[in-house]
Amino acid sequence: MPDETELKIRIVKIKDGTVIDHITAGHALDVLRILGITGGEGSVVTLAMNITSSRIERKDIVKLEDRFLAENEVAKIALVAPNATINTIRDSKVEKKTRVELPSTISNVIVCPNVRCVTNKEREPITPKYEVLSKQPMKLKCNYCWTHIEETDIIEQFTK
Amino acid sequence: MGKVKNLISIQDLDRKGIDAILDTASKMETVAIDRSDLLRGKIMAVLFFEASTRTRLSFESAMLRLGGGILGFSEVTTTSAGVKGETLADTIRTVERYADVIVIRHPLDGSARVAAEFASIPVINAGSGAEEHPTQALLDFYSIRKLKGTIDGLTISLCGDLKYGRTVHSLGMALSQYDVSIILAAPPSLKMKPAIIEEMKKAGIQVNQVDNIEDAITEDVDVVYQTRIQKERFYREDEYFKVAGKFKISNKDAERLKDDAIILHPLPRVDEISPDVDSMPQAKYFDQVYNGVVTRMAILKMVLG
């Protein structure tokens, strides 16, 4: 299995864009799908999966040339890769390094997959909220209908 | 002002809380006959966005026996919510100004939590979508304890629609707090929510899942809790007909039970218990109906007392 030193040779540095590091192993493609990146955009996309890491046993990395992330996109990534770090690169320098943080309760990122949930009723003045039951595997609980939302439901919703 | 007491989920109560309500319900047996002024001057609003016979009438009967008054609706098409599109939040913020307690039944999961969020008076969940029906679970517990003398140590079969049946969701969660063995009998498409089974197993309860009614009605079983396959919970009629009609209890099934075993049903039933079971000694579902009155008297006392 390749380590990070070998990987540095394989993955070239980017000038402007975003490096998403420490993605939960096997989820790099989900991250790309969440961001709507198909490869057809024309920008350089580099991806490495299942490499060894000092912080987490195995990880994935995604490097995106000329692509910066919105706050809402970072929140979504936190749900499929709760240990990820986001490095914003400008002029080949790390401008900002942030570790995604998953609070114990999240809102405004997903909709409850339970079609009978009151949060899916139009015009009710409520904010759907979800309690994080588990980070690995990701499991949420809707604070209104108490439906448990599994990782597969979350990914399916983000990549529809 | 103290914290408002709501009853939204059966999980709002621990075992001590459940037992306290059952003890109060037991004391309400004589009060129900003699009547009382305990809640005189208090007003209960019953907001039924869905059909009901027993739950609404037993709540009303409970309040009247305790000397309180009632107002509300049971036909949503006569309300601004049903006709003009008023939100549930606005309906609640209106009704709370007319009453001291709200009893709500609504077709959406989580609806009672929305009501509690917007109300400054106690809210009692009388059925929220396919999610929960905590007062039914309490009256079921009361019925079991009254008829069997205990809940601990029993083998209880929950049968029928375990996926959409809100009564079995609340009952299943509450049973996790007792020392019982549970048999879950449902067609494959209507199995109990995994989260509730997880809860039961975490509590150390022995759970046995079967896909036929025969294995749920044996001489080892103390309580058979039968439920209706609910047509209104299906989006597609053909799916309903595919599973409806199965999981019926006949007198032949009931004959396999011990003499002191009991058959309960939250009612209404369609044909999942054959009428010839009604006269058998194990058939207790009509006794169960009356227990709804005393249990709801105890619940009203808890939130308003």
Could you characterize the architecture of this molecule?
The complex is a heterodimer of chains A (160) and B (305). Chain A is built from 4 helices and 9 strands. Chain A is an alpha+beta fold and 160 residues long. Chain A has 2 domains: 4-99, Alpha-Beta Plaits, CATH 3.30.70; 105-158, Aspartate carbamoyltransferase regulatory subunit, C-terminal domain (SH3 type barrels). In chain A, strands 2-3-1-4-5 form a 5-stranded antiparallel beta sheet, covered by helices on one side. A 4-stranded antiparallel beta sheet of chain A has the order 6-7-8-9. In chain A, strand 7 (129-135) and strand 8 form a beta hairpin. With 305 residues, chain B is of the alpha/beta class. Chain B folds into 2 domains: 10-132 and 291-304, Aspartate/ornithine carbamoyltransferase (Rossmann fold); 134-289, 3-Layer(aba) Sandwich (Rossmann fold). Chain B has helices at residues 15-34, 54-65, 80-83, 88-95, 111-118, 134-148, 166-175, 194-202, 237-243, 251-254, 285-304; strands spanning 43-48, 69-73, 101-106, 123-128, 155-159, 181-185, 206-210, 223-226, 262-264. In chain B, the strands form 2 sheets. In chain B, strands 7-6-5-8-9 form a 5-stranded parallel beta sheet. Chain B has a 4-stranded parallel beta sheet with strand order 2-1-3-4, sandwiched between helices. In chain B, helix 5 links the parallel strand 3 (101-106) and strand 4. The mean pLDDT of chain B is 94. The interface between A and B is medium-sized, with 17 and 19 residues.
Spell out the blueprint of helices and strands.
The complex is a heterodimer of chains A (160) and B (305).
Chain A: H1 4-10, E1 17-24, H2 28-34, E2 45-52, E3 58-65, H3 71-80, E4 85-90, E5 93-99, E6 105-107, E7 129-135, E8 138-142, E9 148-150, H4 151-158
Antiparallel strand pairs in A: 1-3, 1-4, 2-3, 4-5, 6-7, 7-8, 8-9
Chain B: H1 15-34, E1 43-48, H2 54-65, E2 69-73, H3 80-83, H4 88-95, E3 101-106, H5 111-118, E4 123-128, H6 134-148, E5 155-159, H7 166-175, E6 181-185, H8 194-202, E7 206-210, E8 223-226, H9 237-243, H10 251-254, E9 262-264, H11 285-304
Helix pairs in contact in B: 1-6, 1-11, 2-11, 4-5, 6-7, 6-11, 7-8
